[in-house]
Amino acid sequence: MVIDCSRRYIRQAAGVVLAVLLLAAAARLAWPQESGTNVLPFSPGEELVYQAEFTRGLLRGIDVAEFRFKADSQHASPNNGSAGYPATISLMGDVVSKGLFVRVAGFHFHQHVESVVGPNRFAALRTSKLYEQGKRARVSEAVFDHQAHKVTWSERDPNQPGSTTTTTLDFSEPIQDVLTVIYFLRTQRLEVGKSLDIPLTDSGRVFRMSVAVVERKRIETVLGRVNAFRVEPAMFGAANLSRSRGQLSIWITDDRRHLPVKAQLKVDIGTFDIKLKRVSFHETRQAR
């Protein structure tokens, strides 16, 4: 049975799908680099909801997972002379398996990632991750020291006291994580044929991720027909985020919002289609 022999690949694919959408989760949070201002061209409190479907065999047309992404900024108070500028930016990405997939595949997964970003120079300050599969769980955290240019990764099994492992790595600026990399990407002008080389750290490793801008075309989306760029992050292979084989594509609107409207992940067991289903807003918090 294809599901029984492919669980490992589905788990790997789920993690990569999350990473892909995390790259696109905060598409309207483009941060002007070296601009001398902290203007944020996005609506604080934006929440993006995506739905993932599998397109092969027994799971064809079945909802596999739901993705939710939120972005909030905390603004400085008038007393510190920086009123109106964000004190920090908080990003959140969450994916959970759903529906018939859980019964057919025989397992449930959940992954949650949060990043805190500093306001002056775009830089990740802290990243936390939770991965759950059935009764198994892993909790990890990355703390960035931009003066020493070191990131300290720690990981533990919450069900096993004393299981924490820690790794400290050197990095060169500007380093990104799987959530903050989208900001750097959004500061770049997308052009067909252009490639970006982005330093990235995740899961106790530091590597460079290449992102190619492949084409520009008009596509159907939940927002209607829009012009969009298709970009392909090189996330597969021994030196990249996932060591398995596959191909990733993300479609990003060619407008001031640069909104990611869909993604597609092709792996050995089939194709995952991820589409934007809803965009909503909630009130952002104000720091005191």
Any overview of this molecule?
The protein is mainly beta. Helix content is 10%, strand content 49%. The protein contains three helices and 14 strands. It is globular, with a radius of gyration of 19 Å. The N terminus and C terminus are likely disordered.
How would you sum up this structure in a few lines?
The protein has 288 residues and is mostly beta strands. The chain has helices spanning 7-24, 100-105, 181-186, and strands spanning 46-54, 62-75, 86-97, 109-118, 123-133, 136-145, 150-156, 165-170, 195-202, 205-221, 224-233, 247-253, 260-267, 270-281.
List low-confidence stretches.
1-6, 21-41, 76-85, 284-288
Distance between the termini: 57 Å
Helix and strand run: HEEEHEEEEEHEEEEEE
Mean pLDDT: 75
What is the CA-based Rg, rounded?
19 Å
Oligomer: single chain
Main pleated-sheet profile? 14 strands, antiparallel
Number of helical segments with 4 or more residues? 3
Helix content: 10-25%
Instruction: Name the beta content range.
Output: over 45%
- Looking across the biggest beta sheet, what order are the strands in? 8-7-6-5-4-3-2-1-14-13-12-11-10-9
Question: What is the structural class?
Answer: mainly beta
* Tally of DSSP β-strands: 14
Basic shape: globular
Overview features:
mainly beta; 3 helices; disordered C terminus; 288 residues; 14 strands; 14-stranded antiparallel β-sheet; globular; disordered N terminus
Helix and strand arrangement:
Layout: H1 7-24, E1 46-54, E2 62-75, E3 86-97, H2 100-105, E4 109-118, E5 123-133, E6 136-145, E7 150-156, E8 165-170, H3 181-186, E9 195-202, E10 205-221, E11 224-233, E12 247-253, E13 260-267, E14 270-281
